[in-house]
Design a protein that fits this description.
CATH superfamily of the largest domain: Transferase(Phosphotransferase) domain 1
Number of helices: 15
Helix content: 40-55%
Structural class: alpha+beta
Strand content: 5-15%
Number of domains: 3
Strand order of the largest sheet: 1-2-3-5-4
Number of strands: 10
Length: 405
């Protein structure tokens, strides 16, 4: 059963999280390993949820209402940087805690993911590189194929501790052996290692030297948003909760100067126990904007036709506003039960993204209660010109937060 849980924005670690870090330091000095591990798990999983982000949103809304465009732009620029600074502070604090408890050198990799991988893979720590390479294929056990992409196959499986995991391997597809596939696979690993957010799937381990290359992610017991939308529209409170969490996650993605480029319902995982911990998954075609364009054929369009942005279709430079468009499509579908442009073949769908106005939401879903403010948010996100959309996920988050109904 889907439950509507209160949205807890996940940007800044507040006083509660820092207090928890100090408590962990005390426990480390006392040698209380059980309590230390429990506290660390809480910090890593929930530290970013203990925030005063509502205050930041209120300040942003006040600035927008006051018409001070320079101040608004400064806030939009500063907020993501605060996210990264706070994230790095949390990573440093946790690394110091572990060093104080264990002594000696400590390998710091990627925050929550690194520490989790450390717990999941103790057998590898004392192995030589050659031994690890020889036994890598036996460390994780695929049990069931659960998905396929252009390059890779995804399996549900287990590790040697019998914990459930998801394994993505570069195999089983026509393009799996290509240089482009390996480059994209390595880029996806690099991007996932940098992203720490409760609503972004967590990477646990990886090895691109094996054949096939693979990486391992957390297993979340749930279903894709597309499964729920097969039954029809979602009520506004639930759609708003999902959209807020996606905007929160994507703001962190964009703060890393990355764009997802494939936001769609089946890349949004809703755990069975509660809606409050959705996961954004599949960064297979995500792009790091700090890197040069990878070698690709000019006639290939990366993205999913129903959810793709106009600039992805035309091959123009993408930026965070491309994800804003796709989030607008997903929100449209959550409120009406269907995406705005869905009729005809692939090229006809592309043409509608480029030229056709989206049908009014209440016309697309007669009888469904859609607040006027929600429709206005969707239509602004779906503007053909990027300059007419929300200019950042922070701005779209604030609009969603302010919308009642």
């Amino acid at each position: 059963m889907i439950q509507v849980a209160p949205m807890i924005p996940a940007y800044f670690a507040g006083p509660e999280a820092l207090a928890g870090a100090f408590a962990s330091g005390i426990l480390a000095q006392e040698g209380n390993q059980t309590s230390l591990t429990a506290l660390e798990s809480g910090l890593l999983a929930d530290g970013f949820a203990a925030t005063d982000f509502q205050r930041v949103v209120a300040l942003y809304q006040k600035t927008v209402a006051g018409g001070d465009q320079a101040a608004r732009k400064k806030l939009e620029k500063d907020i993501p940087q605060q996210i990264l600074r706070q994230r790095d502070k949390m990573k440093e604090t946790l690394a110091k805690i572990r060093m104080g408890n264990q002594g000696g050198e400590h390998r710091v990799a990627s925050g929550r993911a690194a520490l989790t991988a450390e717990y999941l893979a103790p057998l590898r720590q004392n192995q030589t590189d050659q031994t690890a390479k020889e036994e890598a294929a036996h460390f994780y056990y695929p049990e069931k194929e659960i998905g396929q992409g252009a390059f890779a196959t995804v399996y549900a499986g287990r590790d040697t501790n019998n914990r459930r995991v998801v394994i993505k391997a570069l195999e089983g597809q026509p393009l799996s052996g290509s240089a482009v596939a390996l480059e994209k696979f390595r880029r996806e690993i690099d991007i996932l290692r940098r992203l720490i957010h409760p609503n972004i799937i967590e990477i646990l381990d990886w090895n691109t030297n094996d054949s096939p290359p693979f990486f391992v992610m957390e297993y979340v017991d749930g279903k894709g948003l597309d499964t729920y939308l097969e039954k029809g529209p979602l009520p506004w409170p639930l759609a708003k909760t999902v959209a807020l969490q996606l905007a929160s996650a994507l703001a962190v993605v964009h703060a890393e100067n990355v764009v997802h480029l494939d936001l769609k319902p089946n890349n949004i995982l809703l755990p069975d126990e509660a809606i409050g911990s959705i996961r954004l998954i599949d960064f297979g075609i995500a792009r790091d904007l700090d890197e040069p364009q990878p070698p690709e054929k000019s006639d290939v369009t990366w993205g999913t036709p129903y959810y793709i942005s106009p600039e992805q279709i035309t091959g123009k430079k993408v930026d965070p506003r491309s994800d804003i468009y796709s989030l607008g499509v997903v929100l449209y579908e959550m409120l009406t039960g269907k995406p705005p442009f869905r009729d005809g073949a692939r090229e006809e769908t592309f043409a509608m993204h480029l030229q056709a106005p989206p049908p009014p939401l209440r016309q697309a879903a007669p009888g469904v209660n859609i607040p006027p403010g929600a429709e206005a948010i969707v239509l602004k996100a779906l503007a053909k010109s990027r300059d007419r959309r929300y200019q950042s996920m922070v701005e779209m988050f604030a609009a969603l937060q302010a919308c009642s109904g």
